[in-house]
Amino acid sequence: MNYLSIHRDVKSQPGLRDLIRLAPLLLLVAAGSVAACSPDARLEQVVRAVEREFPDVHHMPIDSAAAWVATGQPLLFDVREADEFAVSHLGGARHLAPGTEDLSPLDSLGRDSPILVYCAVGYRASDMARRLQARGFTNVHNLRGAIFQWANEERPLAVAPVVHPYSATWSRLLRPEKRAPNSGR
Q: Which pTM was predicted?
């Protein structure tokens, strides 16, 4: 198997592409020193890694984001897969698949529109925030800690009070009572 066939396979399977991009974070979560920590401590380590990976993205703290969301101002975009979004999401959020190539439908928004993006832990949303910034959007923020931290802090969710854990490994970042049953990959 050569590089081109691997690249073609990865490009045709967004889930596999995400897995490869997230591999360093998965290793961090699976590491023994992190595994012994609480879900909140493990999540904080991953969040810090996301911030290092995306220093050009504004990572808005949960408290600030919750206050902003309460005003109804920001457009909320959930940058997770459809099955994750179906389990739960922030109230008023719109689904925007992480592998979305064509962002032209968002061009009708003003370039200074307030936008808050989130995913499970922040990686996919930070990538989307960067892509939106490259399209000229100037008021884009990533929800620091993402929906996992939001749920761990008992903040309100639409649909259900639990979150799709993305995978068995990522489920370690959620408090047990916040994990949706039978929804890991």
A: 0.83
